[in-house]
Amino acid sequence: MDSLVLDIGGEIGALVIHTGPTLAEREIEISPATDRNAKREHNVVHPRTDRHRTAYTAVFPSVPAGDYTVWAPDGTPDTVITIRGGEVTEHHM
Predict the structure, then answer these.
(1) Domains of the chain
(2) C-alpha 85: how far from its chain's center?
(3) Per-residue confidence at 5, pLDDT binned at 50, 70, 90?
């Protein structure tokens, strides 16, 4: 897989969202779950290839601990996930 640098520790975690190829190069957004009107952070789904396969992921490398709404590319809420400090959370869309 491509190399990624995650900035986690203390109260900061990371989020990796796995998708299929239909979402390649599309934006995925997250926002604090407690405020639907909060500013959204976004990242793009990129294909990441190793010698065995290609994975399609959006990576949020530094996310403060808490609950977040993951927004689908069509603007609807997909799910709520919990980010824990010092950990990588994974979600499959």
Answers:
(1) 12-87 (2.60.40)
(2) 15
(3) confident
Task: List the structure tokens of 48.
Answer: 């990441």
Could you give the C-alpha distances from 8 to 49, 53, 88, in angstroms and in order? Answer: 23, 26, 8
Question: Whole-angstrom Cα distance, residue 47 to residue 12?
Answer: 25
Whether pTM exceeds 0.85: yes
pLDDT bucket at 47, cuts 50 / 70 / 90: very high
Q: Radius of gyration over alpha carbons of the chain, in Å?
A: 13
Where residue 2 falls among pLDDT bands split at 50, 70, 90?
low
- Whats the size of the chain, residue-wise? 93
Tokens 């796995």 belong to residue: 18
